[in-house]
Amino acid sequence: MHRLWHLRLLACFFATSASAQTVPYPSQPIKLVVGFAAGGPSDLVARAFADHAAKPLGQPLIVENKPGANAVLATEAVAASRPDGQTLLAAATNHTMIPALYGARIKFDAAKSFVPVCTLASSATVLVVGPSLPVKTVAEFIERAKAKPDAMTYATPGQGSSPHLATEQFRKLAGVGMVHVPYKGAAPAVSDLLGGQVDLSFATVGSVLPHIKSGKLKALAVASRQRSALLPEVPTFEEAGVKGFVVDTWYGLLAPAGTPADALRALTREASEFVRSTAMRERLAGAGLEPGGLCGESFAAQISREIDANTRIARELNLKVE
What we know:
By secondary structure, the chain is α/β, with parallel strands linked by helices. The protein has helices spanning 2-21, 41-57, 72-79, 98-102, 138-147, 162-174, 186-195, 205-214, 261-276, 278-286, 296-317; strands spanning 30-34, 61-65, 87-92, 114-129, 153-156, 179-182, 200-204, 218-222, 248-256, 290-291. Strand 1, helix 2 (41-57) and strand 2 (61-65) form a beta-alpha-beta unit.
């Protein structure tokens, strides 16, 4: 009798354990946290992925914008969340600049606190000037900047963002002085550039393409090794006489360290399908973006290389966030 009771108890235990282990991922809506304001390229990529992945994953992906401190606030929140794959970070290249600019003040390790899933999209950086700056070429721009040191103002999505670092690299290469005006995301930065409150921006193509096409902003050069297919008439900085100035921006998916393997497999699968989808490629191209596709260890290796490189650049340029 006791033996039968024990057998029934064991059967119940194993049935319960098996049931707990086979709960499919995701078991509830997924939160996708963006460190910038709505409307910028990070937000656009996150929302495109959310739309794509909701049906195959069987749960909605809820995009939460948490701007502030160059995405540090959003990154801290995700790093501190439960590692179950239900809270993810929609990160961008600036993620690899945070350690160099904030040092020991941040409550996470940009590499060790996360598992890189995949890059979803990428964009070249373009120098655009607003209606307050009557120049047509990079040469004219540099000449004007040198004639009036620190008179020009440049907008970025935030202190320590990739456009901020790109602009400081350019200033060093070109030997010009300009005043930094940081914003809480690309959208408000572009809005003030259009309104003439600031003079220029080293922006991702995705954040300014419609305004370039409409003629509201003038593109002077792209910081890529070859001309952008989205802006074939705009020269590279190499062609414009500024040698060695190449800056690319990625947008990708990071999960908290310790996220289960089954969740990572599901997310990697959907990220890979996302970049292969014709509809999503067209949606990205319409926003001035190209598809990503770097996943797992390859993505992790790139993040590690960029952290090292950006730490060196920040030190050389004496850049830090007070």
